[in-house]
Amino acid sequence: MSETMRAVRITGHGGTEVLGPVRVPVPEPRADEVLVRVAAVALNNTDLWTREGAYGRPGDPDALSGWRGPVDFPRIQGADVAGRIAAVGARVAGDAVGRRVVVDPAVYDSDGPDANPVGLMGSERDGGYAEYVTAPAGRVHDVTDSPLTDDQLAALPTAYGTALGMVERARLAKGETALVSGASGGVGLALVQIARARGARVLAISSGAKADAVREAGAHTVVDRGRDLGGQLRAAAPEGVDVALDVVAGDLLAEGLPLLREGGRWVVAGALGGYGVAFDVRRLYLHNAQLIGSAMHTPRHFGLLMDLARRGALRPVIAAAFPLEQAARAQERLAARSHVGKIVLHPRAA
Question: What digits encode the pLDDT tens for the residues 190-228?
């Protein structure tokens, strides 16, 4: 193994100019860690927002900040890693070397199955925009026998983990009607697929140009976000929806909350439409509705996701792949939001 590796780091908050290819030492796994040779790493909106410092802080929403606070620069980005174990720490069984794996990127607040994520690989610790990355052995999942490609496996952790966390927290049941916002994005497509697999009727919001791809992912009905959204939603679901799976928030939450049926659940895991929201709180308490925040997944959720991956029960859509050195170009493509599915980088480790 080479003593150095290629990586792409951010040196501060800013535009893509802060992304820079470098050669750095290959990280050494600690006693309870493994070293993963990265085959593919998927991009997420969190890559953009961490680079831009767009998360804000409690009491100061406009502050430059990472996912959970200040970022320790320089930082190798990349939460979503698929690859093979190249080496193990002193307290990890040596027969793990060579196994094909997906890394759970979350840093949790405890060791239990329902622990909350309080950090993220690529933000609070170095990630997979590199030939190698270390991870705790307990957060690395063996998917050697999965029929999915490396690119598809890399597409799972953040997008599908977030989606499965939303669906689980919403307690979505067979036969219910689920509204999915931002349905052509990485999390949105995952939500469509998972909700459909749960036996829900899926009502998706997307642009007209991407509607066919969203239907192919499993949506029963797709409404165009660009024209009279409220009218379209009321026409498509005249009896209301049981669950909203929302990565947009903004005006959609205020306009859509009255669509919830009695006891409905509105789950928010993003703010693409804006984080400042005003809504009629009477529509919440008079109808026993629930407004639920959902940040990523728990260890239990991620275990369920990996079971689906081993069976090939989910089929992530890959929009484009770039070599590692083109990370800035890949992030620009992600920010343009003209694609459907996931964008991945290939470090091509030796």
Answer: 999 999 999 999 999 998 889 999 999 999 999 998 778
One domain, residues 240 and 338? no
Task: Domain of residue 272: give its range.
Answer: 162-293
**Mean confidence (pLDDT) of the chain:** 94
Mean pLDDT lowest among 1-5, 72-76, 131-135: 1-5
Is the pTM higher than 0.85? yes
Looking at residue 103, its amino acid is V
Q: Is 140 found in the same domain as 93?
A: yes
Is residue 307 included in any domain, yes or no? no
Whether 106 maps to a domain, the answer reads yes
Say whether both 214 and 284 belong to one domain: yes
Q: Does 147 lie in the same domain as 222?
A: no
pLDDT of residue 2 exceeding 80: no
